[in-house]
Amino acid sequence: MTVRIKICGFTRPEDALVAANLGADAIGLVFYDKSPRHVTIAQAQAIIAALPPFVSVVALFVNASREEVEQVLAQCAIDVLQFHGEESPAFCRSFQRPYLKAVRVQPGTDLQTLAAQYHDARGLLTDAFVEGAHGGTGKTFDWTLIPPQLSLPLILSGGLDEHNVVDAVARVSPAAVDVSSGVESGKGIKSPQRMASFIAAVRAVQKDISKKPGF
Length: 215
Ligand SMILES: O=C(O)c1ccccc1N[C@@H]1O[C@H](COP(=O)(O)O)[C@@H](O)[C@H]1O
Fold this sequence. Notes:
This protein is α/β, with parallel strands linked by helices. It has helices spanning 13-22, 41-49, 66-75, 89-93, 111-117, 165-172, 192-210, and strands at residues 4-8, 26-30, 56-61, 80-83, 99-105, 123-128, 154-156, 176-179, 184-186, 189-190.
């Protein structure tokens, strides 16, 4: 199975275009004003306008109000919503759009129960739990906390980079990976070299896995 790649936290159209041309399946825009990667609606529109067809645009929110989400949806061509806060299942599904629910994983996090609660999500996105932060921290978590069989597609994130993503994909077999800090040269500035190395690493490990007997 193809491991999908999402790169998150773009602030500049030129970086998003490079990601798309390198083969990223989705790009993420952060609508959370406490993030150093936060974009305005005008910035988001410019980034989206730079993209070629068939690259999904994901809008990330952290405990935003209904009005904030609706305003973004009304003004930007968004394909998927990503909720990174304490949004309820009812709130997430109320926009009639595909959505991802992000979960910050620590010992005791019951991913099976969360997958059942957000059963209509397109995927459960697992990120590291870091006290006082909602994501984008560049920290990994203990991947053995992920149960082998989840009822939702797993999107692995949290501290991934070009060096650890091979091990991550081989161990966890996620449906997709999501990266932000790990492909940056500065907050919100994506490095073409790091994005290229990250995408090449995912494609290489995927090829290796598909060569294994029984695959
Ligand atoms: O990118 C951010 O600034 C951010 C802020 C608040 C919530 C989530 C955020 N980003 C998401 O966090 C994960 C992990 O990011 P990283 O690779 O460890 O930097 C990823 O899903 C980002 O989309």
